[in-house]
Amino acid sequence: MILSLFSHASTQYTNIFDALRLTKFAQEKGKTEIIKKLFDAYFTKNLELSDHKVLMSIAAECGLEEKKTAEVLESGRYGTEVRADEREAMERGIDGVPYFLINGKYTASGAQPVEVLQEALAKIIAEEKAVAPATESLEGMTCGPNGCRF
């Protein structure tokens, strides 16, 4: 959702558009661990996420098929979806990662301790229960690549 990320180690910017497209592909295949691996590659290992060799390697670590991954990276596939995410991020004022959007209206920005997120989720659930119609159940809360829904 961010066009570029700042690398503190090299003070360089890198275009992550292809990494975001690859993330969409991986999520479609149920390989959501790619997000953590991309963060590690960029923030810990200072790798260029615009480099297709780096992206191919990360995709392979996640079990994505090499030929299909290469096809995604060489095409414009998922570009429309990534641009839509970028527009939504700009509209919401999101300018950094991580950024949590829960139930389409609750947000938390930046790295948060688990306890802070647990407390926030407990408050959100209590608030949602208070305003939910009596016939609506909140037992089916789910979280996925597009956020959490009750």
Explain what the structure shows.
This protein folds into 2 domains: 4-92, 3-Layer(aba) Sandwich (Glutaredoxin); 99-149, no CATH class. With 150 residues, the protein is of the alpha+beta class. It has helices spanning 17-28, 34-44, 52-61, 66-74, 79-92, 114-131, and strands spanning 4-6, 13-15, 99-102, 106-109, 142-144, 147-149. The strands form 3 sheets. A two-stranded antiparallel ribbon has the order 1-2. Strands 3-4 form a two-stranded antiparallel sheet. A two-stranded antiparallel sheet has the order 5-6.
Classification by helices and strands: alpha+beta
CATH topology (fold) name of the largest domain? Glutaredoxin
Q: Give the strand content.
A: 5-15%
Highest-level CATH class of the largest domain: Alpha Beta
Helix count from the secondary structure assignment: 6
Rg value: 17 Å
Strand order of the largest sheet: 1-2
Mean pLDDT, all residues: 84
The low-pLDDT segments are: 1-11
Question: What structural keywords apply?
Answer:
single chain, 150 residues, alpha+beta, Glutaredoxin, 2 domains, two-stranded antiparallel sheet, 6 strands, disordered N terminus
Q: What secondary-structure arrangement, pairings included, does this model have?
A:
Layout: E1 4-6, E2 13-15, H1 17-28, H2 34-44, H3 52-61, H4 66-74, H5 79-92, E3 99-102, E4 106-109, H6 114-131, E5 142-144, E6 147-149
Antiparallel strand pairs: 1-2, 3-4, 5-6
